[in-house]
Write a structure and sequence with these properties.
about 190 residues, mainly beta, Jelly Rolls, 6-stranded antiparallel β-sheet, 3-stranded antiparallel β-sheet, 2 helices, about 5% helix, globular, binds fe (ii) ion
Length: about 190
């Protein structure tokens, strides 16, 4: 039912393919990629990373921000696709972050592919959750999060997060996560790295 007069402040819908998580060709959808060259010192084997093609895309993101960055009480929606691969014996993964506003939470929901969601609190206590089509993950505030593709195909997940959450990459750049996911004998192994 439509009531009242004049124009509302409600944005129209965007469309995404739920089987792949990929968003349609809508001008409101922003797109960005992270390349191997942008992942300096993120991986255990920095030497192996530096010898790879720096232009190779490690992960790609699409996001829809219906309100400006930093808006209190709004929401953003997006997806990330982490491509399959390893650097040394470490699977391709996202840099990972805490939210700048530490108490802000987030949902992740896997569309396709397989991997692991690495979660770590401010005391560096970590856990991992398996990701696969349909797996839906609640990431509480004050928890750093990173996604690792442990499969042979791209891993795509959807995300919904507060528009005032922001990103704090610095804490992770300085100390990294306390666990890493490595390919050992062809299978993923979670290794503690305090
Ligand atoms: Fe986040």
């Amino acid at each position: 039912m439509i009531t009242g007069h004049g124009k509302t402040a409600v944005a129209g819908p965007i469309h995404l393919d739920l089987s792949t998580g990929v968003m349609g060709n809508d001008p409101r959808v922003e797109r960005t990629v992270k390349t191997v060259g942008q992942m300096k010192r993120v991986f255990l084997d920095e030497q192996a990373r530096s010898e790879m093609d720096p232009a190779q895309v490690m992960y790609a993101m699409e996001y829809w921000k219906p309100v400006p960055d930093g808006t209190e009480a709004g929401l953003f929606f997006g997806n990330s696709t982490v491509f399959p691969g390893v650097i040394g014996e470490e699977y391709f993964m996202t840099r990972g972050h805490f939210h700048a506003k530490r108490d802000r939470a987030e949902f992740y929901s896997t569309a396709s592919g397989t991997g692991m969601l690495v979660l770590m609190d401010e005391q560096r206590c970590a856990t991992v959750q398996e990701m696969g089509a349909g797996s839906t993950h609640y990431i509480p505030g004050r928890i750093a999060h990173r996604v690792v593709n442990t499969g042979a195909v791209p891993l795509t997940f959807l995300a919904c997060w507060p528009s005032d959450a922001g990103y704090d990459y610095a804490a992770i750049e300085e100390q990294g996560f306390s666990v890493r996911v490595l390919r050992r004998n062809g299978v993923p192994e979670v290794v503690v790295q305090l």
